[in-house]
Design a protein that fits this description.
322 residues; alpha/beta; D-Maltodextrin-Binding Protein, domain 2; 2 domains; 3-stranded antiparallel beta sheet
């Protein structure tokens, strides 16, 4: 009888703990929430993060404050997040490079994504487009490859930084096409300026980052990633059409510090999914040419592991390290 009483008591205690955690999740948030973005203000990531913050703020009845902490491909921002309590009040706006690429780029990375960060929600994926300056006089990918092969290492390209998705995407293009290019990393808007001036006349970027310049005839699109042509660029072929295997992930996700209570993670996930169904947020995604991704919290881990397995060997093969 005594043993049965102990078992029942333990079960009730566990149930009480679970109920308490769920109850706390329902009552959350009680104060402003911070959404940390590893890019500078005004970037495409920042615009999307602020749209999400606005939607969640209305849903929660609390402010969601965007904090920009650029530098070191997200390492500085993640270190900051990991110094905060695991209570959901500090969330991180992550990109694929922060979670899947950095472990292969940094020999002494101060965090392990799978161990230190808990997936909360997937957000969206962006297609990439190869663009060149008009001064390059390349109107097709075939012409670009021909020019690059005629001048091995003589053509430079811009990126958002060493190890950034824009860097690795262009290295993949070069590897698949059998060409050698010169990498020039930038931090901020300098890459676009250099690109349009022809100083670094090529770049692989997310469509939202270059579409205004394409429309204004300041950049020439040569090829896009994905299985089909983009509605915004119907005359631009996919790499697949051209016979090149150039699959580049461009996804964004929300993560929190590991140890954040599971009921709270599920609540935030459900609220983000609901926010993504709102017409205003859908318009924000469409304006940035983003494809929404919805799913349970563990979907973040699945994407992270998939792209780490796919890109880790390429990063090692190219000898890219920070």
């Amino acid at each position: 009888m005594k043993r049965r009483t102990l078992i029942v008591g333990a079960a009730l205690a566990v149930a009480g703990m679970s109920y308490g955690a769920a109850g706390r999740a329902e009552a959350w948030p009680q104060r402003p929430v911070r959404l940390v973005v590893p890019q500078a203000g005004g970037t495409g990531n920042d615009v999307l993060a602020r749209a999400l913050a606005e939607a969640l703020g209305k849903r929660w009845g609390r402010s969601v404050v965007v904090e920009n902490r650029p530098g070191a491909n997200g390492v500085l921002a993640i270190n900051y997040v990991l110094q905060q309590p695991a209570d959901g009040y500090t969330l991180f706006f992550a990109g694929v490079s922060n979670l899947a690429f950095n472990p292969f780029l940094y020999p002494s990375l101060p965090y392990v994504p799978q161990r230190d960060l808990a997936g909360v929600a997937m957000l969206a994926n962006s297609p990439f487009v190869l663009v060149v300056a008009p001064a390059m006089h390349a109107t097709s990918f075939a012409e670009f490859v021909r020019l690059a092969k005629a001048r091995p290492g003589g053509i430079s390209y811009a990126s958002g930084g060493i190890g950034n998705s824009t860097h690795l995407a262009m290295e993949l293009v070069a590897e698949r096409a059998g060409i050698k290019l010169q990498h020039v990393p930038f931090n901020g808007a300098g890459g676009s300026t250099s690109l349009m001036s022809g100083e670094t006349p090529a770049m692989m970027n997310v469509l939202a980052g270059v579409q205004p310049y394409i429309t204004g005839k300041k950049l020439v699109p040569l090829a896009v990633t994905g299985e089909r042509r983009l509605a915004a660029l119907p005359d631009v072929p996919t790499f697949k059409e051209l016979g090149y295997d150039v699959a580049v992930p461009g996804w964004y996700a929300i993560v929190a510090r590991s140890g954040t209570p599971a009921p709270l993670v599920r609540k935030i996930n459900a609220d983000i999914d609901a926010a993504m169904d709102e017409p205003a947020f859908k318009d924000k995604l469409a304006n940035q040419f983003l494809e929404p991704i919805k799913g349970p919290p563990d979907e973040v881990q699945r994407y992270m592991q998939r792209d780490a397995q796919a890109w880790g060997p390429l990063i090692r093969k190219l000898g890219i390290a920070l």
